[in-house]
Amino acid sequence: MTRRALRKRIDRSPLWPLPALETPISGHSPRRWIPTLIVSRTQPAAGVLQLTLESPELPSWTPGAHVDVTLPSGLVRQYSLCGDPAVAGRYTIAIRLVEDGRGGSREAHARLTEGAGLAVRPPRNRFELATAPRYAFVAGGIGITPVLPMLRAATAAGAEWTLLYGGRSRASMPFLPELEAYGDRVTIVAQDEAGLPSLAALSGAAPGTLIYCCGPGPLMQAVTEAAPAGTAVHLERFTPAASTGDARPFTVELHRSGRTVEVGAAETTLAAVRRELPNTPYSCEQGFCGTCRHRVLAGEADHRDELLTDGEREDSMLLCVSRAVSDRLVLDL
């Protein structure tokens, strides 16, 4: 009986004895990994790797969704789905090679080959395409990936739309043949040919227009500033937004461990906790994957992640980026 009870407890929370987390906004367990097969590897632009993954277990998805991918080294990274949601059992992702990045893209380009297996988590969508009569899409570089399925969806719905797509050079901009087929609804601006794209057209967006933008931080900031007052601007970030919060020290009590740690102004909550509990799991360290999510039992967290909903933030936080508003936090660790 004891063994059966233990197995049931572990099934509910694979990281037992840590607490089981509530179901996230995706509706699927964040710990569920789906094995897939890489059936195609192509290069749609210089420095861009496109992978097609297949598995009968892959859930349906909507434009704007992204998936967590576990690389051969165990690193977890997030990539937008850029294929066709109507094709069941198949996901397509595109990965820009960032030579001076944290290593995920270099590993993907070097080790993810056709015929290899790749595990993904079910898709999440914090960049959902809302219904509207017209859209203004803006994409920069690899930021075109979540926008591409939106263009197909908007076209199928009969909505009016335009796309402004900028990149360093045409050679580095993926999916140009497909985009050019849309005609004058798409404006392509290569920086080495024409400089930075002009956002002047956004200021004249008709009432009811929704603006969707994905790309580098400066581009998203410029789009937000150029949008007419009252116009909804939807942004998708590949890196955390710059925080304007105070980075002051605070204290964390690890309730179940009976320990207390001091979090310095120049370190993360995760780093401080791992000094006492070195086996505390983490991955992306940017507030996207949710691996380091833990329950907050007391105190007020300063949430700086790009993942949790308002409801989820009421009793949990991501240790890698979030801090404390109060002088003391109590975590269920």
Spell out the blueprint of helices and strands.
Elements: H1 2-12, E1 34-45, E2 48-54, E3 66-70, E4 76-80, E5 90-96, H2 104-111, E6 117-120, E7 134-140, H3 144-156, E8 160-167, H4 176-180, E9 186-190, H5 191-194, E10 209-214, H6 217-226, E11 233-236, E12 250-254, E13 259-263, H7 269-276, E14 293-298, E15 301-302, E16 316-318, E17 323-324, E18 328-331
Biggest sheet: strands side by side, in what order? 4-3-6-1-2-5
Q: Roughly what percent helix?
A: 10-25%
Number of helices: 7
Helix/strand order, N-terminal first: HEEEEEHEEHEHEHEHEEEHEEEEE
Task: Briefly summarize what is shown.
Helix content is 18%, strand content 29%.
Features:
alpha/beta; 5-stranded parallel beta sheet; 6-stranded antiparallel beta sheet; single chain; 18% helix; 333 residues
Describe this structure in words.
The protein is of the alpha/beta class and 333 residues long. It has 7 helices and 18 strands. It has a 6-stranded antiparallel sheet with strand order 4-3-6-1-2-5, covered by helices on one side. A 5-stranded parallel sheet has the order 9-8-7-10-11, sandwiched between helices. Mean pLDDT is 88; it is low at 9-29.
